[in-house]
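Weekly structure sync - notes
Attendees: PM, LS, DV (DV joined late)
Agenda: review two folding runs queued last week.

Item 1: First target. Sequence and structure tokens pasted below for the record.
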Amino acid sequence: MQKIPVQQVDPVALTAADKIHVRLTEGRFQNLRRFISWPLMFAYFALVWVQFDGRPWLLFDFAERHILLFGNTLSWHDLPALAGIMIAGACLLFFLAVGWGRVWCGFACPQSIWTWVFIRIERWTEGRATERAKNEKLPLRSTRLARRVAKHLLWIAFATLTAITFTGYFIPVRELTSSLLTGTASLSVIGWLICMAALTYTNAGLVREKICLHACPYSRFQGVMFDLDTRTVMYDAARGEPRRGAESTQGDCIDCGICVKVCPTGIDIRDGLQAACIDCGACIDACDAVMEKIKKPLGLIRFASEKQLQKAPSPIYRPRLAGYFAVLTLAVSGVVYGLQQPTELLVEIRRDRGALFYSPQQDVVCNRYLIKIENFGNEAQFTLSLESNLDARLEGKTAIATHEMGQWLPYSVCATEPEQARQKIAIAFTGLDVHVTKETTFITAVR
């Protein structure tokens, strides 16, 4: 397999101590990014804060050992469906990386989405990128100090809201906010919220592009995923070089540097493909705006493959891309099937850890059991019955109501003159629309 040519870039340019002041731009790719990222952000908050029939859209309830999903109750035995979602997500990342580079990072990654939000807040409070860069070297006094404080307060507020919302996936968010307002929240919850808010504030506000370059594993293995047919953000050097002044007739690139100013990771795309590029398309929109002003064709910077830049034919069918799409389809199909076959009733039967059996009277042998049922459907009550070839009876509560579910309840099975030392019996659990049987062993003698 041919690899994309590597061009060495001065690492000092990528790790400079100077703060990157990102200049916001407009264009079709920025509109597409917002079209994708804002619904994802809405879903992040809505899944916790919006309620359906008095319950949140999504809640991982460890205390009750179930998952609430859009009004449906799933048991922990349905976790393979969530594992399928993770597998499908990984396959989607691989599929996108092979086809279009790091578009996930640029258009849908939470780190990028939150970073853009923090950049917007920075612009609202401290002005445009040029103004921020100019004021960075001036002492913080009066108005500049007030703006700087306002920016950090808004960052902290948004980071705190993010932390509370994330915690709301595991603790009902209304109970969480109520305990915080009344001062009854536990120290562990408060400590977790502080850590989560601090990480959000640091990653999206202070560190930003260094996460994409140094901490994100996706930027490391993307080079393995790419090939000469991968369409990623590329600078057409054959058309743009040599760079020229405004009155020159050489290449189309006028060396205005706007593609660097709008880049959230601070790289120069004209130096070639780099691990820090998140394929957000900001440099494309900015460059297209310049090309339009100087009456040159758009697309000096564009999504293109190495073969396309070399004017070579690019195949429509690509085995690796088709393979990832096939695995993605299978994973999504498995998740859909699994969510349509939820566990409605979970039954557990344990033998008494004391005596294996006992005889309350002659020719009668009894075994003790502990039984627990967990209802994840709409049943309000279950009745228990014994299914066995023995002349036996079930002693204990034959009806279990909602408030008794999830508790270990004692039962005994007593048989008259059993012939075998060990044999299988079954206990049936019947609701309005559910009938489940669970097998266990009945012991009458020790071998």
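Item 2: Second target, run right after the first with the same settings.
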Amino acid sequence: MDPVRNPYAPGAGQRPPELAGRGRELDVFDIVLERIARGRPERSLMLTGLRGVGKTVLLNTLRSQAINRLWGSGKIEARPDQSLRRPVAAALHMAVRELAPRHRAPDRIDAFLGVLKAFAQRSAPTGRAGAPSKLRDRWQPGIDVPAASGRADSGDIEIDLVELFSDAAAVASDVGTGIAIFIDEMQDVGPEDVSALCAACHELSQIGAPLIVVGAGLPHLPAVLSAAKSYSERLFRYQRIDRLDRIAADQALCAPAEREEVEYEQKALDLLYEKSGGYPYFVQAYGKATWDHAPRSPITAADVRVAAPEAEAELAVGFFGSRFERATPAEREYMRVMATLSLVEGESGGVVRDDMDAAVPTAEIARALGRKPASLSPARDALIKKGLIYSGERGTVAFTVPHFGRYLRTQPT
């Protein structure tokens, strides 16, 4: 069929043509926005899930919902080697600029921007006489007003962020709306900054201020937040984003195809769900390859079988391979053992189940390698920092990437 008309979009953070199976999450966020608009207390929101389940797409969609309600918004992507000061400052600057045209007191906006500038500039390391130590550190946040003094500029990120968020929420209250800050890859926020975010959200929830944080991260994000502040378990509303069920996966494939006057045979949909496992990124990847190989409508199971190797080859390079290449030989050995242990054998020795996305006890990994668990801690910790595995429960690890175990078992040792 015509590849130009191919409706599927297997891209990182790229919205699929049909956002299937996420109606509940969109409805929940609508309720959050409406409750805050009516002055009701509400919690910030955290989305968690494996890679490829569409967290970034959903985060962007939630932001669109906030914008449609005339909220101020800003989005950042956390990095493990970066403080939150500058990204948060940039996000809040964007959010307040969206609100400024509706504010009746320009002086009030300028006063907040002065606080925001002071907050942002505290991130610059200083050398002798208080001057920036390097040219690249002489960063300015693009705010024309002079930096304020005595507010959000103490240098303690927890104190400063509470004050900054409180002032931003006050600006939003003036125009009868709210501010939402969206943070992707939130598990990569440093411990000190996570603690500050929790403290700021805690303060805002207590006073009913119209500012919320919407984060997205890997499945261990709740554990990261809990390690920073014990009350974080009650502070946020957690939503686990998982694979699509069969109905939603079929909708993600069929709805875009129907708009192009193309249909699927039922056996083709059966095979596509088996291949993709219902993971949204894989649904798009297999759908795109199948469309390009199918000669005509309706698309058949034979078309899927012909196209599957191409989809799998693309995933092996772009989705799996790029991550595998980041691991050291010792880390690859650790992951290969994880992949082997996810195979569940029957009494006769044959494989009866492939729990490729299940958690594996670290003690079993050590036993399989003939090593003491403590000696494997560096490899495990490095893999967690690289975002290749996570520890959802004490003493276990699992892959952050769906079907990664299956991929690893096809790689030469």
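Discussion on item 2: The radius of gyration is 24 Å.
Action: LS to circulate a short write-up before next sync.
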